[in-house]
Request: fold
Amino acid sequence: MSSATTATVPDAHGHFGPFGGRYVPETLVHPLQELEDEYFRAQQDPEFQRELSYYLREFVGRPSPLYHSERLTRELGGAKIYLKREDLNHTGAHKINNAMGQILLAKRMGKTRIIAETGAGQHGVATATVSAMFGMKCVIYMGAVDCERQKLNVFRMKMLGADVVPVHAGQKTLKEAVNEAMRDWVTNVRSTHYILGTAYGAHPYPVMVRNFQRIIGDEARRQILEQEERLPDLLIACVGGGSNAIGLFYPFLNDQSVKMLGVEAGGRGILPEQHAARFQGGSLGVLQGTRSYILQDEFGQIQSTHSVSAGLDYAAVGPEHAWLRDLGRVEYSYATDDQALDAFMKLARLEGIIPALESAHAVAACMERAPKLSKDALIIVNLSGRGDKDVAQVADKVGLQMPV
Ligand SMILES: *Cc1c(COP(=O)(O)O)cnc(C)c1O
Reply:
């Protein structure tokens, strides 16, 4: 692809080629336009950028390390592996990069109330955290199934002063939580900003969230040049809505020598309703404000999905990923639940790092690719989050028992 291709997306209406855009009810057209205008003003405002950098450094703990994963590299016997340690951010994942950017924007716009959806609870925790910090009222919508499988994060959000609203509609996971958040926003738009948690939804969310997350790739680029004096050969990241992956990939898109691999949730295997790998069996459609690849049936009904990791368990993928996939710039594969669990345990035992189950999908793909590459090849794996929230679920799956 030419360098012009990535420099000019999205267009003024939020289109990434045939993907993206703004498909919303009438009542949200004006708020989204207001958000777009204010976001692009803030982006050009040195004071806003200074404030954001300050909180990312002093509160979030950036820059996150780019860590040479020595024992995993040796065990796999191929490419040299680096981990981008987003798990070390305050609150334990990359989500806070975006939540911090959006709360500063909400403050600029004079909003006093924050709402968000959450799947694994990491975005809910990040949003509850920045809301507490800036003294804003906070309501988090979360599918009832996700509340159950990510209990620890529900307690964290409540302790931070947020109202957590369990959503009992449909499949009771992320998609339904987004519907409820959008319903709330329509009703309370004057006072309320909706902090959407991934590079998805109506324009300007996909471009705005990407730009708040590109700090991952900007740092990784600088760090690998410092440590290796050259660019990496391969970047690997898991893809839910796609924010941690696009955050890592974006600053490298024009470096033709850098290959990129996005890893979706293969669940129990690529059979209808057993996975959340949108590029395996998904098709073009519109869901929750944007046009992208979606898991849907022949009538356009959204299919149910499955993944061991709540954060990847969503029927649609961010529009920029759909575009990059069609262009052939990024390759997309998947890891199954079992592969992710295996990678989860392996990283814990070899490196002393317990990854989020989402991130374990990227580690699983790395375990497959690294041995096929030569020892002088360089891989960067985005460790999007830590696995504290997942230990009870994994202990149950692998049959660990408490001593009595
Ligand atoms: C939410 C989450 C993801 C998936 O979301 P993206 O927007 O695709 O990054 C991945 N990893 C962790 C740790 C998460 O919390």
Remarks:
- The chain has two domains: 16-57+95-209, 63-92+213-398.
- Residues 93, 95, 120, 122-123, 198, 238-245, 311-312, 356, 358-359, 384-385 surround pyridoxal-5'-phosphate (CB under 6 Å).
